[in-house]
Amino acid sequence: MGYTNWTCPSPVVLKYYLFQATMTFGFFWPVFTIFLLNRDLSYTQIGLLGSISAGFLVVGEIPSGYVGDYIGRRRSLLLGNILLALSVLGFVVAQTFAAFALLWILWALGIAFQSGSGDAWLYDALKDRLREEEYIRVRGRGGSVNQWVSAGTMLGAGFLYSADPRLPFVAGGLLLLCGVPVLLSLPASGRHANDGDDDGDGSDDTDHSDDRFTIMEAIPVIRQKLSEPPLRSFVLYTALFFAIINAADEFIQPIATRRLSLPQSRLGPLYTAFSVVAAIASYYAGAIEDYLSTRWAVLLISALVGIFFVIPIFFPLVAFPLFFVMKSANTVMKPIASGYVNEHTESIGRATVLSAVSMMYALVRFPLKPLSGVVADIRTPLVALAVLGSLFLVCGIVFYTLESPVGSVEKGTGVSSD
Question: Which InterPro entries does the record associate with it (predicted)?
Fold first, then answer.
């Protein structure tokens, strides 16, 4: 029987949850934008840094996903973890825009090596040992673990920042490094599952047989998967959804402190509240998808976020519930979106396709972050939020008019009506 009990997860799932606990940015995220603004960066420059990151994600996603399929997903996750830790620790010494740009590049490469490989490892690990139908439930609850740990670490963010602005990044980098021994203990999955290390002892998990997934095989797989239904419009639609949330995230701190007069010392508790609500939402991601269906979950959650983006321009205090809505919607949509892509992707090349999807997400995010930064500099962050929400709602109408992003899928079969 598959994993169905939160209180008695299998050892594989427990290790996944433990890894998710180390992958939190809670120590520094509540003060991140304030930290950058106090380093004399403008909203436009912060947006440009986000675009630099997105650009390197675009360049690095497919090669990193191919590396994950080729050398093993644990090694890809390990490399990404180390790059992320180096990036976070680099903020301790960075002072110039060029230095920050270098850290964003390291950050982007770290995310690239983890994005496709992490979801591919989990899906195949469940398929090998439990049931792949549990993917959204386990992925969502892993996100919940991450959010709960984030909530705890965020409580100390303001205190650490007040003591020394560099301390949140020291703590955050060290926590990321704690993920290294956890990753070394993970078992192999998918086609690497029987290649010399299925016991999680950290030994070689690469495939020494003759059926390696070559780069010439990867290109047509990506082209076929992303240029045809059911993934074509789905990936573009969810890419726009995640892009507006990512772009809006940098405005939370200035809106809360400068427009709504929240003291900087309250940012930690505010972000803790975000994480608690998001943790609860993520925990029930599988149940939400089961109740609404993938089609209606994607439509209703994304539409709600788009509408909430516009309201604060007329009623600024609605920005607070908006922040909660967008954080929760983000954590619910991630497992639903990756689960849908996994259901329509074969095991061989899974990490490559997932990385290609992440590349599309980065490609859409690339222009939105600096453009929204320009709007915020010229007008206000609230106006920038309204522009992002309006853009998404208009594009959403176009999507559903031309081709529904989500077809009717029979759960666990990968069969779509499209």
Answer: MFS, MFS_DHA3_Transporter, MFS_trans_sf
Q: What is the pLDDT of residues 224-251, one digit of tens each?
A: 666 677 778 888 899 999 999 988 988 9
Q: Express each pLDDT in 257-301 by its tens digit.
A: 888 888 877 888 888 888 888 888 888 888 898 888 888 999 999
Tokens of 276: 């608690």
* pLDDT given for residue 407 in this prediction: 64
Task: Give the pLDDT confidence score for residue 174 in this predicted structure.
Answer: 95
Q: Which two tokens stand for residue 1?
A: 């029987």
Regarding predicted confidence, which is higher, 322 or 415?
322
pTM: 0.66
Cα 122–chain centre separation? 15
CA distance 106 to 248: 22
> How far, rounded to the nearest angstrom, does the alpha carbon of residue 324 sit from its chain's CA centroid?
17
Cα first-last separation, the chain? 31
CA–CA separation, 391 vs 412, rounded Å?
33
Collapse the DSSP code of 188 into the 3-class scheme (helix H, G, I; strand E, B; otherwise coil) and give the result. coil
Per-residue DSSP letter, 415: E
Distance separating alpha carbons of residues 269 and 266, to the nearest angstrom? 5
- Could you tell me how far CA 167 lies from the centroid of its own chain? 24
CA–CA separation, 308 and 328 (whole Å): 13
User: Measuring CA to CA, how many Å separate 274 from each of 26, 242, 266, 279?
Assistant: 11, 17, 13, 8
Which residues on adjacent β-strands are paired with residue 415?
Answer: 410
pLDDT of residue 210: 37
Query: Which of these CATH numbers, 3.40.190.10, 1.10.510.10, 3.10.20.30, 1.20.1250.20, describes 11-201+215-412?
Result: 1.20.1250.20
- Is 217 buried (19+), middle (13-18) or exposed (0-12) by CB count in 10 A? middle
Residue pair 153/171 in contact (Cβ under 8 Å)? The answer is: yes
Is there a contact between 377 and 43 (Cβ–Cβ < 8 Å)?
Answer: yes
Query: Which sequence spans correspond to the domains of the chain?
Result: 11-201+215-412
User: What confidence category does residue 206 fall into, taking pLDDT thresholds of 50, 70 and 90?
Assistant: very low
